[in-house]
Design brief:
alpha/beta, eight-stranded parallel β-sheet, 11 helices, 12 strands, 13% strand
Amino acid sequence: MAKAIRFFELNTGAKIPSVGLGTWQSSPGVVGEAVAAAVKGGYRHIDCAEAYENQEEIGTVLKKLLDDGVVKREDLWITSKLWCNSHAPEDVPESLNRTLQDLQLDYLDLFLIHWPVSMKKGSVGFKPENLTQPDIPSTWKAMEALYDSGKARAIGVSNFSVKKLGDLLAVARVPPAVNQVESHPVWQQHKLHEFCKSKGVHITGYSPLGSPGTGSIKTQVLKNPVLNMVAEKLSKSPPQVALRWGLQMGHSILPKSTNEARIKENFDVFDWSIPEDLFAKFSEIEQERLIKGTAFVHETLGAYKNIEELWDGEL
């Protein structure tokens, strides 16, 4: 009998649902329908961010689902993220309040620092001249105050390397509960995985299918021969195998789709598993980071001259 893996326990004691709906690149007009279909289909975890510019629509749908009794607030897990232009300590609570207003909620289950990158307050887009020097310890102190207030029931980070996470853990009063990072069979991040495990920081994997809808990404994770061989042997689809791999690694995962049939298929990952001999084959896959964060690096502006510095060599 396969182990279902429906939740993971965080260092706060809270249980995060293991499969969440990703909403990055889900355009307004369709994201609401995707969230409604997901919740009605059993999803209890929705991953949002101010930067995705679709939280208002998600909020309208969440309110309707709650008002109609489809789901109770305490059974939902809603994550959102602090954008780079709100890192100043006084801007952090304002950002959370805006997000709560947009999502029509009183609290978030998890609030993350979206990137270890800061930009000028009020700046829009990714112009290099907006990049500033981040002060993660100060931003984190403001995040800790939100945790203390109960408005963010857990706090964490996203896109942090082993070094950046280690530096934060050294000064944090409240350790981050989660590091949300790119994770899929083509970017397995073993070093980060082991480090997080040793420190009690849970990994949530974004782009667990390798972001097939992103035009700029050429590597097709879902076409990987190892993944397809395993899928064929188990009579599952390549996306399902990629997702189940994430769960068996101990990560929560955020498949993004706005297609109702695929939203359903991506949730069918609980009553079967990848046997050990096939799971071992994933170690043969050539590794490549797909989301590189090139917009956050500049030779003279901001904190990072190149992507090696942004990721501390984890490329």
